[in-house]
Task: inverse folding
């Protein structure tokens, strides 16, 4: 492409409203333009990279045996009513009516639609397994659209849905998709990590997310150092330590603690470590009433785990302070397990503390020297807390360290959740109707552009891996308006690289070298060839990789350039 025919809209100014570097650079390099909150258009240069990523995704999905199709963004409400999700989905789903007053939504995902097509066109076990995918625009009315295309309202997703006669076959395809995702993320040149995940409102059992590691990531990942365990902290399990609780050695003592309400205040006031305190949270119980959740003072509640506990109401709802006062007779800051008037469950770690400090269920008072089984009942235990840095890995190998990640993809085993709800069946070899098992597999194609930039940039701009650069190489002729030799060499090299199938840009705008180089660096072209009179006199081009400190001289031939690109 000649840059005279491919206008760039680059800018030196860092946009004030862009918080993360990928968003800043995508705006400065003229990749995207905002149309409205969470809505972005892709300018020609940006679309080149977006298309290259989509192509990698498509090639690997096809190679893995999935079949591409295309479904509409606008989806009839009836399908969502069938699955039961019309009422379950929150305001993230944009709903509207057509001129006949029929309800529709802008698809945030396509499980319902694909199940509908599947039940129309797939009748026999002979047609299974099948994996149907599309690369298509999704709409989610995100509460806080931010970071540009990283969390937008409309975005391009690759979503795949597989159907199987047995759970074993679903598991096989899940692993097949996992392999395909590893190939995709590797080809993007990104540092990534598959991690165990919570399946959220999509439902189902087994699921993993593929994260691009980056400090600006919105997700926190628990990764074992010296082990292989990795999970989104939301989903990371914790286990009992395996060492028995120390024996009780103290008497219970009531202490006046006026105004000391937080665990930190109490621990300091009573001169005990935070881990020597047990705190009690009170939430709504499943089937009505309240239930207490005991946690160690230094641990945080994992709301997802708590909401999944059979005795806890889902969604998790904290008891209001007035309700707590009515039942416990005190303020929230003074709750404890001794004489607790509601049922109680304890996190594994909280149940392991001996001689602990806790609220006395009386305003301005705490207890010290409390022991489970002596001063209050032995609690029912469960995994209820957030994993913490420094914890042993739940699989017993290594120690947990936290990383930040950007979720680029997510794979799920859904089981029969949707096929059952939507009455999907196929006939097996005996002619019996069977509800097929289903998997689903998403990749945020637009988000990946931003995620790769988060990992690959410097003070001058983006640094693309070759595979997804809008152009792999840029030719910068110096003074071509004055030198016929420079012009001829640049044109010749441009023709040869095009003929060799290389995505090449020729900066024929006649700009000064400094401004040409600044543009090439900002938009992130990995290879740069500078052609000037001086070096040509020595039969040389100047070559520089975007990551290299200094330029080097190579022979002034297309073959020498191609050799560099192949290196
Ligand atoms: P998140 O937790 O980031 O909101 P999600 O779990 O809701 O994402 P999925 O339903 O798993 O997302 O969607 C598949 C993929 O689509 C995600 O892995 C992510 O890469 C991408 N994605 C989801 N929401 C957005 C968004 N608002 N903007 C851009 N990409 C998104
Ligand atoms: Mg997800």
Result:
């Amino acid at each position: 492409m000649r840059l005279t025919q491919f206008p760039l809209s680059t800018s030196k100014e860092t946009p004030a409203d862009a918080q993360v570097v990928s968003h800043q650079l995508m705006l400065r390099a003229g990749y995207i333009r905002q149309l409205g909150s969470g809505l972005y258009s892709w300018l020609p240069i940006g679309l080149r990279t977006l298309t290259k990523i989509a192509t990698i995704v498509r090639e690997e999905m096809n190679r893995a045996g999935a079949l591409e199709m295309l479904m509409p963004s606008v989806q009839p409400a009836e399908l969502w009513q069938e699955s039961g999700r019309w009422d379950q989905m929150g305001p993230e789903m944009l709903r509207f009516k057509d001129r006949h007053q029929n309800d529709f939504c802008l698809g945030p995902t396509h499980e319902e639609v694909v199940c509908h097509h599947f039940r129309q066109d797939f009748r026999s076990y002979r047609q299974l397994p099948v994996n149907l995918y599309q690369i298509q625009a999704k709409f989610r009315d995100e509460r806080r659209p931010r970071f540009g295309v990283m969390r937008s309202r409309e975005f391009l997703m690759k979503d795949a849905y597989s159907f199987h006669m047995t759970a074993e076959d679903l598991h096989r395809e899940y692993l097949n998709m996992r392999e395909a995702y590893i190939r995709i993320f590797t080809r993007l040149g990104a540092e990534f990590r598959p991690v165990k995940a919570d399946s959220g409102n999509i439902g189902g059992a087994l699921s993993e997310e593929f994260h691009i590691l980056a400090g600006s990531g919105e997700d926190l990942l628990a990764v074992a150092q010296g082990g292989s365990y990795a999970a989104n902290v939301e989903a990371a399990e914790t286990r009992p330590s395996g060492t028995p609780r120390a024996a009780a050695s103290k008497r219970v003592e009531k202490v006046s603690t006026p105004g000391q309400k937080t665990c930190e205040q109490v621990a300091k006031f009573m001169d005990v470590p935070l881990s020597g305190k047990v705190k009690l949270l009170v939430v709504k119980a499943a089937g009505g009433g309240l239930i207490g959740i005991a946690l160690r003072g230094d641990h945080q509640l994992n709301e997802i785990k708590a909401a999944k506990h059979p005795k806890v109401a889902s969604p998790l709802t904290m008891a209001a302070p007035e309700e707590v006062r009515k039942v416990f007779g005190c303020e929230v800051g003074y709750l404890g397990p001794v004489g607790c008037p509601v049922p109680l469950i304890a996190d594994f770690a909280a149940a392991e503390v001996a001689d602990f400090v806790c609220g006395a269920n009386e305003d301005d008072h705490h207890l010290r020297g409390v022991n489970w089984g002596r001063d209050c009942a032995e609690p029912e235990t469960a995994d209820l807390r957030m994993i913490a840095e420094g914890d042993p890995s739940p699989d017993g190998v290594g120690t947990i360290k936290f990383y930040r990640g950007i979720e680029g993809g997510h794979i799920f085993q859904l089981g029969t959740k949707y096929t059952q709800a939507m009455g999907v069946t196929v006939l097996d070899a005996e002619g019996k109707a069977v509800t097929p098992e289903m998997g689903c597999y998403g990749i945020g194609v637009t988000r990946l552009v931003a995620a790769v930039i988060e990992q690959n940039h410097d003070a001058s701009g983006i640094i693309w891996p070759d595979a997804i650069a809008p152009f792999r190489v840029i030719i910068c002729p110096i003074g071509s308006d004055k030198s016929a030799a420079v012009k001829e060499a640049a044109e010749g090299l441009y023709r040869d690289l095009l003929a060799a199938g290389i995505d090449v840009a020729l900066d024929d705008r006649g700009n000064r070298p400094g401004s040409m180089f600044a543009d090439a660096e900002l938009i992130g072209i990995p290879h740069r060839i500078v052609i000037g009179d001086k070096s040509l006199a020595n039969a040389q081009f100047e070559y520089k990789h975007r990551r290299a400190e200094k330029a080097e001289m190579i022979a002034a031939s297309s073959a020498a350039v191609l050799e560099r690109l192949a290196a």
